[in-house]
Each structure stands twice: as C-alpha cells, then as structure tokens.
Amino acid sequence: MRSSLIQIAVNEDESVQERRRRVASLVRERAGAADLVVLPELWTTGAFAYERFGSEAEPLDGPTYEAMAKAASDAGVWLHAGSIPERDPDGPLYNTSLVFSPSGDLAAAYRKIHRFGFDKGEAVMMGAGEELVTVRLPETVLGLGTCYDLRFPELFRGLVDAGAETLVLPAGWPERRREHWTLLARARAVENQAFVLACGTAGTHARVPQAGHSIVVDPWGQVLAEAGPDEEVLTVEFEPGQVAQTRELFPALKDRMLGLAPPRR
C-alpha cells in the first residue's frame, strides 16, 4: 500500500481560497502514485490562528468538503483531508477531520476529542468530539486521531480495540515541541503494534513556526520515512499485513491487565 502525506505550508500571505485550490491540485497529482493521501490539521486556517476559526468555519459539507471530495474522485485515492473548523448549526465549532473514498463519497468524519489550549484557544472555542472513529479500507483499517490526541494513549488503545491497524494523525504541531512529536508517534506505534501516519504542517502562521517532519512509523517503532521542515510530499510504501504478523510474533496486546482495583490507602 502506498501513502502520501502532503505536508502543507500554512502561511498568511495565501488566502484560504487560494490554498484550497492549490491543495486540491496537489491531491490530484497523487493519481497513480498513492492509494491513501493524508493532509494536515486545520490547513485552511492554521491550527494556531484562533482568531480565524469563527470567520473561516464552514459546515461539514462546505467548500473544503466539496473541493476535497472532487480531488479524491479525480485522483482515485482514499483521502484523509485533514481537518476543518466545522460550524455545527445546532452546536459549537468543532475541529473535524474528513475522509473520502476514491469515488469522492464521505467515508467518515471525526471530531477531535482532546482540544489543545489549556483553557484558551481551541480548548474554549471548540466543542469536544465524543466518538472514536475507524475507517475500513480494502487493505487496512484506519483509526483516526488529531494532533493533541497524540498525547493520550488511551484513545489509540480504544481505536485498536475497535479494529484499527493504521493510526492516521493530521496535526499542526509547533516546532518548539518537535521532539515530542517524533517520540510520541513512535510510542503510539510500538504500544499498539500499528502503523502510524502522522502528517503535520510547515511554514509559520499566527507567529508560531510549525514542526513539519511528517512521519510514517511501522509496528516495531521503526521510522519508514520522515519529512523535513518545509512543504513536502512524503510518499512511502508499506505492508499492512505486517500488523497481524507483529501482533502474532510478539503478542503483547494479549497480556493487558484491565479493570485493576485502585491502590489501597
């Protein structure tokens, strides 16, 4: 299976409309070169451009949905279109990921569960998702997370319990914590014996330099490919069957001890 992670540069000198058109073109260029294409978190606005969330928020089936559905269909690829600031007419804003099939149909939507900001920014401006989401592809089952979710291993263990074999994580991760990004991506792969496809942004927006360094990790924690700091298309071929082989060869997941009593006081 071939996957392309498109590490988009989110810069303030490019309008949302221009970036949407440019990214759709980049997706179309993956026709015949990838089976699955992954985009970063909040690439239309920038993950730290909090003041733009409200003005740039769109309904689930808004302009980004339409552009990415058409791009997925034109390229004939599965497309994880990163995430958008979603405006729910009956509720708050959400940080929502969209996954499209090669026919351009919406295969899944995931509302980010763990919101970053420590009582400001995304943490107070957006609602929290409440559901784990998996997507069954012909070759593998995707488990969806977004950026800050990476720091919460119980989410990914829940996805594995739901059948996930490949964990896909779009992000807008800051450069100053880049080492955490790489470390946690490898940890999530090792502890869940799953592939991790983590796609970040490049550039600088809202005065926050982005980490870049999108990464693909195998179930043993080996880095199969890693991008640099700038805009880049990172393409890697991997064998989804390695997940089952790894879990059979080293069956650590079977030794989990659940429902332990709290310590005595």
Automatic annotation (TrEMBL):
PROSITE patterns: CN_HYDROLASE, UPF0012. One of its GO terms (molecular function) is hydrolase activity. The keyword Transport does not apply. Residues 1-240 form the CN hydrolase domain. The keyword Ribosomal protein does not apply. Keywords: Hydrolase. PANTHER family: DEAMINATED GLUTATHIONE AMIDASE (PTHR23088:SF27), NITRILASE-RELATED (PTHR23088). Belongs to the carbon-nitrogen hydrolase superfamily. NIT1/NIT2 family. This is Carbon-nitrogen hydrolase. It comes from Streptomyces mangrovisoli.
